[in-house]
Amino acid sequence: MYDINQWEHVFKLDPNKEINDKDLEDICESGTDAIMVGGTDGVTLDQVLSLLARIRRFTVPVILEISNMESVTPGYDYYFVPTVLNSADKEWTMGMHHKAVQQYGAMIDWDEMMLEGYCILNPESKAYQRTNCDMPNEEEIIAYAEMAEHMFKLPIFYVEYSGMYGDAKIVEQVSHVLKHTLLFYGGGIASEEQAREMKQYADVVVVGNVIYENKKAALKTVRAVKERE
Ligand SMILES: CC(C)=CCC/C(C)=C/CC/C(C)=C/CC/C(C)=C/CC/C(C)=C/CC/C(C)=C/CC/C(C)=C/COP(=O)(O)OP(=O)(O)O
Ligand SMILES: O=P(O)(O)OC[C@@H](O)CO
Ligand SMILES: [Mg+2]
């Protein structure tokens, strides 16, 4: 299913982490709507190519979430490009993007590329620290979501708690101000209950680390999200 508007569940695989063939097969055949390949650090072209070749044995759509230009390669179904809205540095909102477009603009298929407006809310996460984020309060988070929807018209607003289960009330508030922009939630989902709770408000729930820590629990999140009325 290649229509992102229909997606509800995505597994995120970190190219910088090992996964054996059986686990990869179970994840790809789980009924998830897509596999996203991405991580904050240590992402190399070799890892990104190798995961792509292994995931391609299955029919699930596969997305590269770009974290650096060195590891971009053709062959993915979609390219998701993060722009970190609560970063204090222009570099992470549009600076790297500006350079990338100057260098690779002619090669970009714009229909395959989607910008994700990230709001990173876990100060302990690598992504928060790497991109020099500021911690927004509730009103500021809502304002970022409104900007994503009405000013920048981004296809995706991503409430990111990478590594930590987040505040469902915030996700609920954000859901009220988004109509066209899809709401992605990711961070710390390790059980069916958590997946179900965040799915009440998010269009798409993203499940990452638990794949490597407890595959059985990870697989159950797919059913939890999809069973919901
Ligand atoms: C060859 C070909 C097909 C070319 C075309 C490709 C294409 C579509 C190019 C687009 C050009 C473009 C605009 C590129 C953007 C350039 C770029 C590098 C932008 C910066 C992106 C960015 C802000 C990265 C920062 C890191 C970040 C926010 C990553 C998001 C993923 C994330 C939060 C992962 C969480 O993992 P982590 O925190 O590491 O968790 P662990 O602790 O578990 O690892
Ligand atoms: O790894 P976890 O904490 O599940 O987070 C998923 C994803 O939002 C990370 O970018
Ligand atoms: Mg991770």
From TrEMBL:
SUPFAM superfamilies: FMN-linked oxidoreductases. Keywords: Lipid biosynthesis, Lipid metabolism, Magnesium, Metal-binding, Phospholipid biosynthesis, Phospholipid metabolism, Transferase. Mg(2+) binds at D14, T40. Sn-glycerol 1-phosphate binds at K12, Y158, V159, E160, Y161, S162, G163, G188, G208, N209. The keyword Cytoplasm does not apply. InterPro entries: GGGP/HepGP_synthase_I (IPR039074), GGGP/HepGP_synthase_sf (IPR038597), GGGP_HepGP_synthase (IPR008205). Its EC number is 2.5.1.n9. Pathway: Membrane lipid metabolism; glycerophospholipid metabolism. One of its GO terms (molecular function) is magnesium ion binding. Its cofactor is Mg(2+). It catalyses: sn-glycerol 1-phosphate + all-trans-heptaprenyl diphosphate = 3-heptaprenyl-sn-glycero-1-phosphate + diphosphate. The keyword Magnesium applies. One of its GO terms (biological process) is glycerophospholipid biosynthetic process. It comes from the Bacteria. Prenyltransferase that catalyzes in vivo the transfer of the heptaprenyl moiety of heptaprenyl pyrophosphate (HepPP; 35 carbon atoms) to the C3 hydroxyl of sn-glycerol-1-phosphate (G1P), producing heptaprenylglyceryl phosphate (HepGP). This reaction is an ether-bond-formation step in the biosynthesis of archaea-type G1P-based membrane lipids found in Bacillales. NCBIfam families: GGGP-family (TIGR01768), PRK04169.1-1 (NF003197), PRK04169.1-3 (NF003199). Homodimer. Belongs to the GGGP/HepGP synthase family. Group I subfamily. HAMAP family: GGGP_HepGP_synthase. This is Heptaprenylglyceryl phosphate synthase. It comes from Pontibacillus litoralis JSM 072002. The lineage of its organism: Bacteria, Bacillati, Bacillota, Bacilli, Bacillales. The gene is pcrB.
